[in-house]
Amino acid sequence: MNNIDFNNKMILAPMAGITDLPFRLLCKEQGCDILYSEMISAKAILYHNKNTKPLLMFDKKEHPIGVQLFGAEPKIMAEIAKQVEGMGFDFIDVNMGCPVPKIVNNGEGSALMKTPALIGQIVESMVRAADLPITVKIRKGFEEANAVEVAKVIEESGGYAVAVHGRLRTEYYQGKADWDIIRQVKEQVKIPVIGNGDLFTAQDVIEMKRLTNCDSFMIARGARGNPFIFHQMKQYFETGSIVPKPELPEVIDMVLRHMQMMVEIKGEFTGIREMRKHIAWYTKGFLHSSKLRNEINQIETYEQLKEMFVLYSKASNFACQYTGKNG
């Protein structure tokens, strides 16, 4: 079995439609330690759904990287764990935290938090079937907190590590994440515990470590449009200095690199359309960014995008000089 080091690591959370190959590579360059594929249906792999093939793509630069599966049938999960074992991933993760209705209504994702015994069966069957480490991502609970109970079941069933998001399924992503449940899990299991929820700055990570003593830190929404967050965190831990947020020219350079990678991997038509949400996140808070986001929806080619950002950069710089504000 591969040994994955989860000691004080910065991890990019798997996010459907966001953490694809181009974005993961950018986060890796910025200092992210551990990556996951986007969430993939075990049944879709079983039935050779063509849409799963791009989701299983990764680059050798991404190691260590895990593949995240979702499903609720122990036999199928075990069979797919055996299949993906030969694809080059370093570990296999099981999503038991997704709150999306279409996943939950099938008894998958966070719905599994309601049936700890079934969780144990799924993890045990996968551990027996594959030699790769099996990790699990859970929530605080479904309607009531039971993350400690579930984490114990995962550990007893042979799970290698558990990531805990400090919200109930019923909370989705609202309110403040409950970090105390992460502390409770950490105190009750010996396997690595990965803290997740409301990590947006290096100071957040330091505070989570102080309050929970968790082993690693999983960044989700804090990384959207902000792969720079991993560099900022690494610098803070290594030097104690706070790296300022990147200025507009650096952000534009990252956007154009991201866009180029999207076009190379997915083609211009798909790449540009999938890039629009990323651009909205990248430019949030900058001067004239709302106008830019509206205009982005009209862009059809990479060259048009480059030209738009040249004009946007000039307009923003002029406005900054004129008003004395930086947006």
Structure description:
The protein is of the alpha/beta class. The chain folds into two domains: 230 residues, Aldolase class I (TIM Barrel), CATH 3.20.20; 76 residues, Putative flavin oxidoreducatase, domain 2 (Non-ribosomal Peptide Synthetase Peptidyl Carrier Protein, Chain A, Orthogonal Bundle), CATH 1.10.1200.80. It contains 14 helices and nine strands. Strands 1, 2, 3, 4, 5, 6, 7, 8 and 9 form a nine-stranded parallel β-sheet that branches. The longest helix is centred in the last third of the chain and has 22 residues. It is globular. The chain starts with 9 loop residues before the first strand and ends with a helix.
CATH class membership of the largest domain: Alpha Beta
| CATH topology grouping of the largest domain | TIM Barrel
Number of strands: 9
Number of domains: 2
Which percent range fits the helix content? 40-55%
Q: How would the blueprint of this fold be written?
A:
Elements: E1 10-12, H1 21-29, E2 35-36, E3 40-41, H2 42-46, H3 52-55, E4 65-70, H4 74-84, E5 91-96, H5 101-104, H6 116-129, E6 134-141, H7 147-156, E7 161-168, H8 180-188, E8 193-196, H9 202-212, E9 216-219, H10 228-239, H11 248-266, H12 268-283, H13 289-296, H14 302-323
Parallel strand pairs: 1-9, 2-4, 3-4, 4-5, 5-6, 6-7, 7-8, 8-9
What can be said about this structure in brief?
With 327 residues, this protein is of the alpha/beta class. The chain has 14 helices and nine strands.
